[in-house]
Design a protein that fits this description.
By secondary structure, the chain is of the alpha+beta class. It is built from eight helices and 13 strands.
Length: 298
């Protein structure tokens, strides 16, 4: 073996890492790595700290990616993507993260939040030995839904209708439903429009798979982003939000089911979501595992 490690180079490594995740996917996401759409959504998120992307590290064997350590939106979060034959790299990956991917606060200094899947005993033992403590505050569950063919048509309250962004890509309406749907107070700031454009900028974003519910007023009041990964025939649900004035009307559920229905029509056999909320359980999702957060202050 001729293993070397190097820094992340954008944009070329964006696709190479995505391909690595696709190639090493195992049914039920039991490989424990991120799904390719999760990686892609990370790069489209308005809050991504792009200035630190070069701190992501890639390990290669004879020119092929075998491991990646990275953050999600900001430094301090650490995630491990590993080929099953290279798990012996975990100690050096964690050491690199502690030295280069740490976050800082004014009151508590340097910290690392390392995410460890609940079935990864090897990495859990490692973080314990290095002084990490598990905190449930930031746990990341992964749930799946086996797609049972096409969903039946979902009925909405009178005056509401399902649309996709291929039908109506009004950025201000999108901005408002996501702002309010994630419980921000008041009306959204106008300077957030550029962030909504960024969310549509990655190669596999599809307007026809991004579903909204339109209210009788013409406003978007529920939103579901759906991603389709064709090699492993999976759908990925992210993000989902409903205006608080229109919750508990079945609108969010309808948007999610429509997004999954469209992915199923393309060939998807299973859908994933990074949540185990009752909302998703009611749709038919069941939790596969938790990715627990292990915290260390330096």
């Amino acid at each position: 073996m001729d293993i070397v490690f190097r820094q992340y180079r954008s944009p070329d490594d964006f696709k190479l890492i995505g391909d690595f995740l696709i190639t090493n996917f195992q049914p039920g996401n039991r490989d424990g790595n991120w799904l390719q759409p999760t990686w892609e959504y990370m790069h489209s998120h308005p809050y991504l700290d792009e200035s630190s992307l070069e701190k992501i590290r890639i390990w290669e064997d004879s020119g092929e990616i075998v491991a990646v350590v990275h953050y999600e939106s900001k430094l301090g979060e650490v995630f491990f993507e590993i080929h099953p034959n290279y798990t012996h790299l975990k100690p050096v990956m964690l050491e690199y993260a502690e030295n280069h991917l740490y976050g800082e606060t004014e009151t508590e200094g340097r910290y690392v939040r390392a995410y460890v899947n609940d079935f990864d005993e090897e990495l859990e033992t490692l973080v314990k030995l290095r002084g990490y403590e598990k905190t449930e505050q930031y746990a990341r569950p992964i749930s799946q839904l086996v797609i049972p063919g096409l969903f039946p048509r979902v009925e909405l309250p009178e005056g509401f209708r399902l649309k996709s962004l291929a039908d109506d890509n009004n950025l201000m309406k999108i901005h408002r439903v996501l702002w309010r749907g994630f419980d921000h107070a008041g009306e959204p700031p106008k300077d957030g429009i550029e962030g909504r454009k960024k969310m549509q900028s990655t190669p596999n974003f599809r307007k026809d798979l991004t579903i909204v519910v339109e209210a009788p007023t013409g406003d978007f009041v529920s939103f579901c982003g759906t991603w389709y990964e064709s090699v492993n025939k999976i759908a990925y649900v992210e993000p989902v939000a409903t205006d608080p004035d229109f919750r508990r009307m079945g609108l969010g559920k309808a948007a999610v089911r429509e997004g999954i229905r469209r992915c199923g029509a393309l060939g998807a056999t299973v859908a994933f979501v990074g949540s185990d909320q009752e909302f998703y359980k009611a749709i038919g999702f069941t939790k596969n595992y938790d990715s627990h957060c292990w915290l260390k202050h330096f």
